[in-house]
C-alpha cells in the first residue's frame, strides 16, 4: 500500500473517527496571502484548513464554513452560506490562489468588525475565526482583535513558517495555550483546534477512552541578533583638534538564529487498535474504528490472521500443552499462555491433520482440561481453552510433570510401533517451588520429548527439565511469544524447517574477492552462499537476497530486488566475478550503506536487514566505522572470519552482540552453516523501525506514526518519499532580507549590521 494512501487512511480515522464536530457553528478561515508568508507556506495553510474540514459535519443546519484571504486588502473567497457539503468546501479551499502583498492583518479584522461574518447567522450561533498567519502584520491589530473577542468571536491564531508568537498571542482567545497553534505540524494543530472546541462541547470524541491531556511543546522562531565577535584597533579624532587617539573598538556581526519557546499544548489522545503493531511479516495495519483493524498482507501471507504464516504440522505426533496457572505466573501470564496455544492450534491443525493436541493446567494440583485427541473438532478444542480459569496458588511444576505423564495422554497412549511420537510442551513464567529434576528424568524415560516455553527468568529450570538448551524457547514479550510458533513447529516434527520459516528478510552477502583470498577460495565462498540460499524462500514478499564482491574495487553483483526467484539468485551467485587486487572491507561496507542497503535500491521498510561479510581478514583495519554506521541504521552485520588465526581487526567488527564466526579454513565453511542460519533467523525476528534505513529521498526526514511513517521533505522537494521537485517555490523574499541559514550557520561576515530590511511585502 502506498505510504501516502496509508497516511490518508490513518488521518481520516484520527480526525473523522475520533473527533466529530456536528454542532451549529459558523467557522471562518482568515488565511494570510502576503509575500512574507510565501506561496509554499500558503499551500500549507490551505492544507491545514482542508484537514480541519475532515472533522466538520458541514451542512447549512450545522457547521458552516467560509474563507477569506488577506494581504494588502482582505478578499472574500467564499461566504459561510455558499457551500453546503464537506467536499465542496475542501475543493474550493484547494482552488484558492496566492494573492501577495503586505501583511495587513488589522485591516482584515476591521473588515469583519464592520461587515460581520459574511453569510453568517448573525451571532445566533457560536462564531469561530481561524487566523492562519506568520504574525508579521504591518498595522495595529490588538484593538480590532480585542473588539471581536468582546463580541463573542472565538479566535484561533495558527502560525506558519517562523511566526512572531507575541502577535499570535495578541490575536488568540483565552486560554492562549489552547488557541495558539502552528500549521507546520498539520496533524498536531488540527488535534489541538478540535480539542479546544471539544472543551466548549462543539466537538465530541467518539470514545469515552479519549482524553484531552496537556503535554510540553515548543514554539520555534527565527530571530536576527547582534553578537559581539571581538575588538580591533581603531583611530578616533575630534573636529577642530589635531589630536588623534588610538583606541580599541568592539567588532560585532549579525546572524539569524533559531529560538525555541517552551509552552504547554492540549491534545486529544485515544487508544488505537494498531498501537501494538499486530500485523506481522511486513503487513500494514489499517484501523477500523477505535478498537478494530485489518491487516494488508504481502501476497505470501494473504488470508491469514495478522499476516502470520500458516505452517500446518505434517508429522504424526501427540502434543500435551501444560500451562502454569499459579500465583507466580499471574493472570496476565496465564492468558498469554492460553492465547499462544490457541494461535498454535489455529495455524497448525486442519481437518486432515495427523497431529493431536491436549491441554492441562496446574498450580498445586494438575487438572486435565482436554486429554490428547479427545475433542470433537478444532472449534471445540478452542472453546475448551477459553473456559480454563486462572487458579493461583503454589507453582508445583515437578508434581505436575509426574501427573501429566500418567493422565495427560488419555486413550491416545498406545504402545509399540502404532504409537505416535509424544511431546509435552511446558509453558511457565514462574520458577517451580518443588523439585523438578527427578520427575523430568522419569518423563523422558517414558520416551516423552519435553519442550519448554518461558521467559528468561525460568530458562535454567526449563533447560534442566527438557535436558537440552535446544529444547527451550525463551521469549522477551507478548509479541515475541507468538513469533515462537514456527520454531516450536520445527522442534515438534523433529527436523527444523529450512531458513526462517517464511519470515520477511533482506539478506546481503558481502564476499572478499581480493588477492589475499585467491580464486579457489572465492569459489568455495560462492558454493557456501549457494548452499545457504537454498534454505530461504526467495521472492519479493518473503526473502530478498543480494550479493556484493570487493577486491581492488567494489562491485554489486546483484541488488536485493534484482532476482525474484531462488533459481535466479543461485545462477547469479555462480556468475559473480573474482576481482583480485587489494581489498578494503571499510570501502565495501560504505558501498553497501550508500548504494545497496537503501529503500531506493530495493530494501523494504519494516523488514529486518542483515549483511553477512565473508573475509580472510586482510584489509579490515578501516571497517570499524562503516560497520557501525550500518548497525546504527538498523542493519545487522555478521562477520565470518576465515583463517587459522582470527585477526584482531575482525574482533573489533563483532560489536557488542559478538556477531562473529571464526572458521579455520574455506573448506570448513559448510560445517558452520547451521550456526550462520541460526544467527540470520534470530535477526529476522528482531523488532525493526520503518525509518531505518530511511525511505525518504533528498535528505527528507522520516517520522514514525501509528505503525507507519511519513516523509517530511526539505524545501524544493515533495511527494510521499520527497522524490519530486516542487513545481512552485516560495515567493521571492522581501528586499534586503537574507536567506534562512541552517541551524548553527556562521554569522554574516560584516563588521556592520546589514541594512535594516523594509517591512515584508513593501
UniProtKB/TrEMBL annotation:
<dbReference type="GO" id="GO:0005615">
    <property type="term" value="C:extracellular space"/>
</dbReference>
<dbReference type="InterPro" id="IPR000742">
    <property type="entry name" value="EGF"/>
</dbReference>
<feature type="disulfide bond">
    <location>
        <begin position="713"/>
        <end position="722"/>
    </location>
</feature>
<comment type="subunit">
    <text>Forms monomers and multimers.</text>
</comment>
<dbReference type="GO" id="GO:0005604">
    <property type="term" value="C:basement membrane"/>
</dbReference>
<dbReference type="GO" id="GO:0007161">
    <property type="term" value="P:calcium-independent cell-matrix adhesion"/>
</dbReference>
<dbReference type="InterPro" id="IPR001881">
    <property type="entry name" value="EGF-like_Ca-bd_dom"/>
</dbReference>
<dbReference type="GO" id="GO:0005509">
    <property type="term" value="F:calcium ion binding"/>
</dbReference>
<keyword id="KW-0964">Secreted</keyword>
<keyword id="KW-1015">Disulfide bond</keyword>
<dbReference type="InterPro" id="IPR050525">
    <property type="entry name" value="ECM_Assembly_Org"/>
</dbReference>
<feature type="domain" description="VWFA">
    <location>
        <begin position="318"/>
        <end position="492"/>
    </location>
</feature>
<keyword id="KW-0245">EGF-like domain</keyword>
<dbReference type="InterPro" id="IPR002035">
    <property type="entry name" value="VWF_A"/>
</dbReference>
<keyword id="KW-0732">Signal</keyword>
<feature type="region of interest" description="Disordered">
    <location>
        <begin position="722"/>
        <end position="762"/>
    </location>
</feature>
<dbReference type="InterPro" id="IPR036465">
    <property type="entry name" value="vWFA_dom_sf"/>
</dbReference>
<dbReference type="Pfam" id="PF00092">
    <property type="entry name" value="VWA"/>
</dbReference>
<feature type="domain" description="VWFA">
    <location>
        <begin position="506"/>
        <end position="680"/>
    </location>
</feature>
<keyword id="KW-0325">Glycoprotein</keyword>
<dbReference type="Pfam" id="PF00008">
    <property type="entry name" value="EGF"/>
</dbReference>
<feature type="compositionally biased region" description="Basic and acidic residues">
    <location>
        <begin position="727"/>
        <end position="741"/>
    </location>
</feature>
<feature type="domain" description="EGF-like">
    <location>
        <begin position="687"/>
        <end position="723"/>
    </location>
</feature>
<feature type="domain" description="EGF-like">
    <location>
        <begin position="271"/>
        <end position="308"/>
    </location>
</feature>
<dbReference type="GO" id="GO:0042802">
    <property type="term" value="F:identical protein binding"/>
</dbReference>
<protein>
    <recommendedName>
        <fullName>von Willebrand factor A domain-containing protein 2</fullName>
    </recommendedName>
</protein>
<feature type="signal peptide">
    <location>
        <begin position="1"/>
        <end position="23"/>
    </location>
</feature>
<keyword id="KW-0677">Repeat</keyword>
<feature type="domain" description="VWFA">
    <location>
        <begin position="26"/>
        <end position="197"/>
    </location>
</feature>
Amino acid at each position: 500500500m502506498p505510504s501516502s494512501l496509508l497516511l490518508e487512511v490513518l488521518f481520516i480515522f484520527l480526525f473523522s473517527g475520533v473527533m466529530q464536530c456536528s454542532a451549529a457553528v459558523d467557522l471562518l478561515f482568515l488565511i494570510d496571502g502576503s509575500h512574507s508568508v510565501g506561496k509554499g507556506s500558503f499551500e500549507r495553510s490551505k492544507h491545514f484548513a482542508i484537514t480541519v474540514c475532515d472533522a466538520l459535519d458541514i451542512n447549512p443546519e450545522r457547521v458552516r464554513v467560509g474563507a477569506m484571504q488577506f494581504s494588502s486588502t482582505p478578499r472574500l473567497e467564499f461566504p459561510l452560506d455558499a457551500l453546503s457539503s464537506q467536499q465542496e468546501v475542501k475543493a474550493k479551499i484547494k482552488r484558492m490562489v496566492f494573492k501577495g502583498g503586505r501583511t495587513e492583518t488589522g485591516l482584515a479584522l476591521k473588515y469583519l468588525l464592520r461587515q460581520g461574518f459574511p453569510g453568517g447567522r448573525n451571532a445566533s450561533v457560536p462564531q469561530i475565526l481561524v487566523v492562519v498567519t506568520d504574525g508579521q502584520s504591518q498595522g495595529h491589530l490588538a484593538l480590532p482583535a480585542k473588539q471581536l473577542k468582546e463580541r463573542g468571536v472565538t479566535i484561533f491564531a495558527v502560525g506558519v513558517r517562523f511566526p512572531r508568537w507575541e502577535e499570535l498571542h495578541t490575536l488568540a482567545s483565552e486560554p492562549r495555550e489552547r488557541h495558539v497553534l502552528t500549521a507546520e505540524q498539520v496533524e498536531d494543530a488540527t488535534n489541538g483546534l478540535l480539542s479546544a472546541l471539544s472543551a466548549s462541547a462543539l466537538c465530541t470524541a467518539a470514545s469515552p477512552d479519549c482524553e484531552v491531556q496537556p503535554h510540553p511543546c515548543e514554539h520555534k522562531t527565527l530571530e536576527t541578533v547582534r553578537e559581539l565577535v571581538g575588538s580591533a584597533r581603531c583611530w578616533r579624532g575630534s573636529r577642530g583638534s589635531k589630536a588623534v587617539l588610538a583606541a580599541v573598538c568592539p567588532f560585532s556581526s549579525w546572524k539569524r538564529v533559531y529560538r525555541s519557546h517552551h509552552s504547554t499544548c492540549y491534545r486529544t489522545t485515544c487508544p488505537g487498535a494498531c498501537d501494538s503493531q499486530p500485523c506481522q511479516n511486513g503487513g500494514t495495519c489499517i484501523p477500523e474504528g477505535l478498537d478494530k483493524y485489518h491487516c494488508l498482507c504481502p501476497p505470501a501471507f494473504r488470508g491469514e490472521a495478522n499476516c502470520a504464516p500458516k505452517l500446518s504440522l505434517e508429522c504424526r505426533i501427540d502434543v500435551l500443552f501444560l500451562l502454569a496457572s499459579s500465583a507466580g505466573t499471574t493472570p496476565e501470564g496465564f492468558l498469554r499462555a492460553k492465547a499462544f496455544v490457541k494461535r498454535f492450534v489455529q495455524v497448525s491443525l486442519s481437518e486432515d491433520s495427523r497431529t493431536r493436541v491436549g491441554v492441562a493446567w496446574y498450580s498445586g494440583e494438575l487438572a486435565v482440561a482436554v486429554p490428547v485427541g479427545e475433542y470433537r473438532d478444532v472449534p471445540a478444542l478452542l472453546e475448551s481453552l477459553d473456559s480454563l480459569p486462572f487458579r493461583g496458588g503454589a507453582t508445583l511444576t515437578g508434581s505436575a510433570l509426574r501427573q501429566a505423564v500418567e493422565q495427560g495422554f488419555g486413550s491416545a497412549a498406545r504402545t509399540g510401533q502404532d504409537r505416535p511420537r509424544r511431546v509435552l510442551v511446558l509453558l511457565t513464567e514462574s520458577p517451580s517451588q518443588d523439585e523438578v529434576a527427578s520427575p523430568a528424568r522419569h518423563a523422558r524415560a517414558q520416551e516423552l520429548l519435553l519442550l519448554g516455553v518461558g521467559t528468561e527468568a525460568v530458562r535454567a529450570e526449563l533447560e534442566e527439565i527438557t535436558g537440552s538448551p535446544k529444547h527451550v524457547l525463551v521469549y522477551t514479550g507478548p509479541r515475541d511469544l507468538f513469533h515462537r510458533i514456527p520454531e516450536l513447529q520445527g522442534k515438534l516434527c523433529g527436523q527444523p524447517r529450512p531458513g526462517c520459516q517464511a519470515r520477511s528478510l533482506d539478506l546481503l552477502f558481502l564476499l572478499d574477492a581480493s588477492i589475499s583470498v585467491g580464486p579457489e577460495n572465492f569459489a568455495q565462498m560462492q558454493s557456501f552462499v549457494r548452499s545457504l540460499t537454498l534454505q530461504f524462500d526467495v521472492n519479493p514478499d518473503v526473502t530478498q537476497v543480494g550479493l556484493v564482491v570487493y577486491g581492488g574495487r567494489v562491485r554489486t553483483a546483484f541488488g536485493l530486488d534484482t532476482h525474484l526467484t531462488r533459481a535466479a539468485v543461485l545462477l547469479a551467485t555462480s556468475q559473480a566475478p573474482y576481482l583480485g587486487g587489494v581489498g578494503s572491507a571499510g570501502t565495501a561496507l560504505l558501498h553497501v550503506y550508500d548504494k545497496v542497503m537503501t529503500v531506493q535500491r530495493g530494501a523494504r521498510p519494516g523488514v529486518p536487514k542483515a549483511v553477512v561479510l565473508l573475509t580472510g581478514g586482510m584489509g579490515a583495519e578501516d571497517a570499524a566505522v562503516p560497520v557501525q554506521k550500518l548497525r546504527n541504521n538498523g542493519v545487522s552485520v555478521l562477520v565470518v572470519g576465515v583463517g587459522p588465526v582470527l585477526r584482531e581487526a575482525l574482533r573489533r567488527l563483532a560489536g557488542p552482540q559478538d556477531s562473529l564466526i571464526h572458521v579455520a579454513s574455506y573448506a570448513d565453511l559448510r560445517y558452520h552453516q547451521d550456526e550462520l542460519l541460526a544467527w540470520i533467523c534470530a535477526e529476522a525476528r528482531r523488532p525493526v523501525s520503518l525509518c531505518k534505513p530511511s525511505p525518504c529521498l533528498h535528505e527528507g526526514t522520516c517520522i514514525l506514526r501509528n505503525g507507519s511513517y511519513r516523509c517530511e521533505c526539505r524545501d524544493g522537494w515533495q511527494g510521499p518519499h520527497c522524490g519530486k521537485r516542487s513545481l512552485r517555490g516560495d515567493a521571492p523574499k522581501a528586499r534586503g532580507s537574507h536567506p534562512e541559514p541552517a541551524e548553527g550557520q556562521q554569522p554574516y561576515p560584516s563588521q556592520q549590521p546589514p541594512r535594516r530590511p523594509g517591512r515584508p511585502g513593501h
